[in-house]
Amino acid sequence: MSSAGITVTEQPSGTPFELKAKPNEVLIVYFGYTHCPDVCPATMVAIKNAKKKIGALADRVDIAMITVDPERDTAEILPKYISSFSTRFHALVPATNTELRIAEKAFGASSSVTKVDGKVEVAHGGTAYIVDETGAVIDQFPFGLDAQSMANDLTILLNERTQTK
Amino acid sequence: MKKSTKALVVTAISIVSISGLASCGSDTESVDTTVAADSSMPAKPEITVTGQWARQSPMATDMGAAYLTINTDIDDELTGAMVDTSIAAMTQVHETVMGDGDSMKMQEVEKIDIIAGTPTELKPGGYHIMLMQLIKPLELGTEISVTLKFAKAGDVVVTVPVLEEAP
Question: What is the pTM of this model?
Fold first, then answer.
C-alpha cells in the first residue's frame, strides 16, 4: 500500500497535504471524526501515550487525521480536536467526496455517513496507518492496540530509519 | 488491569430522583449511598459497579463516553442510563459494532442483558454510556454522577471519575 502522490486538504490553511512523512520521520494516518466518543479518542490517546513512552524519538512522529465526516468537522473544529492529543498534527478535511475516497482507497479503508431519522450514523475503520517518507504504509495499528505496543513499533521503525541514513 | 476502586453496592430499591446529581463540583459528596432495602419487600438483586470512568472529552466536541463493569447476583437488564442535564442533554447506551473489514460504527441499544455471576463490561470498542450534547467538556480530575437504570434493580447511581484512559 502506498499513499504517495495523494493529497487531502489541510485546515485551516486550505492547502493540499501529501500523505507521506517528512524525511527520517513517520506519519500516522488515521480516518476518524470528532463526534466519535469511543473509538477515535481511544486510539488518539493511545498514540499520545505511545509518543510519551519513546522520548525524543517522538519528535519524528507526525499525525494526520482525515475526517470521514467533513460536513460536521469543519476547518475550525478538526484542528482544535486533534490539538487535544498532539501539538504536532495535520487536520485534513476532504474538500470533496472524491478526495476522501481516493485517500481511503490508498489504505484499503472505507467509511460511510448516513442520516437515519435525523441522526447521523458514521461507520469508519479503526486502524491507524504508519507511513514513511515515500508514502509506503510500513505498519498498521489496529483498534485496541495498547500504547506500549505502538511505542515498541515506532521505536523500531524510527531506529531503522536512523540507521539507513 | 481493572481496579475495583470506588465499588458501589446498592441493594436495589429505586433511588428516587436525586436533584443536583454531581456535576463537576465537589459539593455533592453524599450522592453514593448504600440503600437499605425495606425488610418487608422480597429480596432484590444486588448490583455492584466497578472500574467506572468517563473519558476526558476532547476540545471541540460535545460527545462523551463512560465505561464500567456491572456485576449482579440475579439476572437483570440494563435498560438505560442518565446524567443530569447540567452535564449532557441526552444520555444513551450505545454499542460499537464491527462491520465489514475493520469498519466500526456505533448504535443505540435498547438493553444489555446482565447475567448473574458474569461481569458485564462496558469498555472502549464495545458497550458504552454515551453522553450527547455535553454542556461543557468533561475535565480530568472531576467526577460525574451516572444513574444506571435496571429492569429489576431499579436505579443505581454511580460516581464516575473523568480520566484520560481506563483505570
Answer: 0.83
CB-based contact A36 B128, cutoff 8 Å: no
CB contact under 8 A, A84 and B58: yes
Using alpha carbons, select from B12, B63, B72 the residue that is nearest to residue A32: B63
Q: Is B3 on the interface with A (CB under 8 A)?
A: no
Q: Which fold has domain A7-156?
A: Glutaredoxin (3.40.30)
List of chain B residues whose C-beta atoms are within 8 Å of the C-beta of residue A35? 61, 63
The pLDDT score that the predictor gives to residue A18 is 97
Please name the residue that has the C-alpha cell 475495583. Answer: B4
Q: Which residues contact A45 (CB under 8 A, 6 or more apart)?
A: A85, A147, B55, B164, B165
Q: Hunting for cell 455492584 — which residue is that? A: B48
pLDDT tens for B82-118 read 999 999 999 999 999 987 777 888 889 999 999 999 9
Cβ distance B102 to A84 less than 8 Å, yes or no, reads no
For domain B47-163, the CATH class is mainly beta
Tell me if B122 sits within 8 A of B166, measured CB to CB. Answer: no
Q: How far is CA A89 from CA A15, A22, A57, B28, B36, in A?
A: 14, 13, 16, 39, 53
Q: What pLDDT digit, counting tens, does each position of A21-49 carry?
A: 999 999 999 999 999 989 999 999 999 99
A165/chain B closest Cα distance in angstroms: 35
Whether the ipTM is more than 0.90: the answer is no
Contact (Cβ atoms closer than 8 angstroms) between residue B68 and residue B122? yes
